[in-house]
Structures are given as structure tokens and as C-alpha cells.
Specification:
CATH topology of the largest domain: Rossmann fold
Radius of gyration: 18 Å
Distance between the termini: 35 Å
CATH superfamily of the largest domain: Response regulator
Strand order of the largest sheet: 2-1-3-4-5
Bound molecules: calcium ion
Number of helices: 8
Order of helices and strands: EHEHEHEHEHEEEEHHHEE
Largest sheet: 5 strands, parallel
Length: 229
């Protein structure tokens, strides 16, 4: 299946160049000149990935990224930010806004396509069928099932959502606030302590399979899921 890639870029020449490169790479580019057009395009059909220009007229790329992360429909869409040199200093705030990767202008088509493929692989797991694997854990998204090697893992709904988020974003540290945003949604008021409670439950769930150490506490930063305990 062709990957639908939304290109949010106000400069027509870059937009066209990127669209051309993506078409050549057998992807389906959807151009948008500003945040408003991007939101309309997402409402019409959710893309597999968003290329987002940092400097946009009106709502900036960063503000749009934050907004997309807060909405249910767009929360999970991977975002690659397109930045100009010198904007790199703001990488940290970009990562906080939930951006998955950066490509600095000017970039080659080949570099861009390689980064898109890498981010898509990372966010969907290696498998195109909605099955994600991390270490011995396997999650079958469409069937809503989790296995530790061949054994089925009984899991509660919140722990499932938490594990799903971790498994699609392995080896990365998330703060309690970020986990609340991604897993519970920012529209819901939940205390940060709730995250700790569900992390504990998730570890308990994985304990009988000897996989509880995969859920790691990173001191004063948050939590991460990793296959290497
Ligand atoms: Ca721009």
C-alpha cells in the first residue's frame, strides 16, 4: 500500500520538489500550503506521516505539531520537521512537541525518503499488518492481543494502550506529562500519579513472563520501554 504523506510547506518550489521525490519513491504525497490546509487534509483522510515545515505563515509548524498531538485523530501520526539551518537549536522543544525526527534544509530527495522510511518503520514496527514487536513482546493491533513469545498476555485496557504507545515508540523516554497526553489524551484531567499506577500494573502484567524489567524508570525523566533490560 502506498504511504500517504502530507507535505505542509508554504514554499511552492520545495513542496513540488518533495512531492515529486515522494511520487518517485512510490508514495502518495498530499500538499498543503499552511496549517489550515493541513488540518483539512487530515480531516479528509489521515496520512501515514506528516512532513512539517518549521516556518509557516500563521500557525507555525511547531504550534501545529503541538495541536496535532493533542487531537485523537492525529495523535499517532509521525511527524518529520523540515527546518532551516540555525533553527536546530529548537530541537529540544520540537521533541517535546512530539516531533519524531528532523531534516535540515537544504536536503536531498534521497536523504528525505530514507528518513521517512526509517520513521515509518519505527512507528509501525517492522510489520505492515499492525503487528508490533519489541524483544519478546508481540502486539497484534487489529486483534487487540499481546503475546510474550507464544504465550498470551492478559492485559487491562489502559495497560494495553500504554503498552501500545511504548511498543510503537520503543527506547525513548517519555515524561509523565507526555504519557498522559499520548495515552490518556490532554482533554482528560488525570493526575500524573495515575501514570505511575498504570506503569506498576503494566509491570505486574509482564512479571509472570519475566518481562517486567522492559518497563524502565529513567530517573527524573520518566519511563521507557526497552528490549535490553
Ligand atoms: Ca516556510
Amino acid at each position: 500500500m502506498q504511504k500517504r504523506i502530507l507535505i505542509v510547506e508554504d514554499e511552492a518550489s520545495i513542496r513540488d520538489m518533495v512531492a515529486f521525490a515522494l511520487r518517485k519513491a512510490d508514495m502518495d504525497p498530499v500538499p498543503a500550503a499552511d496549517a489550515r490546509a493541513a488540518q483539512l487534509a487530515i480531516a479528509e483522510k489521515v496520512p501515514d506521516l506528516i512532513l512539517l515545515d518549521w516556518m509557516l505563515p500563521g500557525l507555525s509548524g511547531m504550534d501545529l505539531a503541538r495541536r496535532l498531538r493533542k487531537e485523537q485523530v492525529s495523535r499517532e501520526i509521525p511527524i518529520i520537521m523540515l527546518t532551516a539551518r540555525g533553527e536546530e537549536m529548537d530541537r529540544v522543544s520540537g521533541l517535546e512537541a512530539g516531533v519524531d525526527d528532523y531534516v535540515v534544509k537544504p536536503f536531498s530527495s534521497r536523504e528525505l525518503v530514507a528518513r521517512i522510511r526509517a520513521v515509518l518503520r519505527r512507528s509501525h514496527g517492522e510489520d505492515g499488518e499492525g503487528v508490533v514487536s519489541v524483544g519478546k513482546l508481540r502486539m497484534d493491533g487489529p486483534a487487540h492481543r499481546v503475546h510474550a513469545e507464544t504465550q498470551p498476555v492478559p492485559i487491562g485496557p489502559t495497560e494495553y494502550r500504554l503498552l501500545h504507545f511504548f511498543m510503537t515508540h520503543p527506547d525513548r523516554v517519555y515524561s509523565r506529562t507526555q504519557l498522559l497526553d499520548h495515552v490518556w489524551g490532554s482533554s482528560v484531567y488525570v493526575e500524573e500519579r495515575t501514570v505511575d499506577v498504570h506503569i506498576r500494573r503494566l509491570r505486574k502484567t509482564l512479571e509472570p513472563f519475566g518481562l517486567d524489567a522492559m518497563v524502565q524508570t529513567v530517573r527524573s525523566a520518566g519511563y521507557r520501554l526497552s528490549a535490553d533490560a
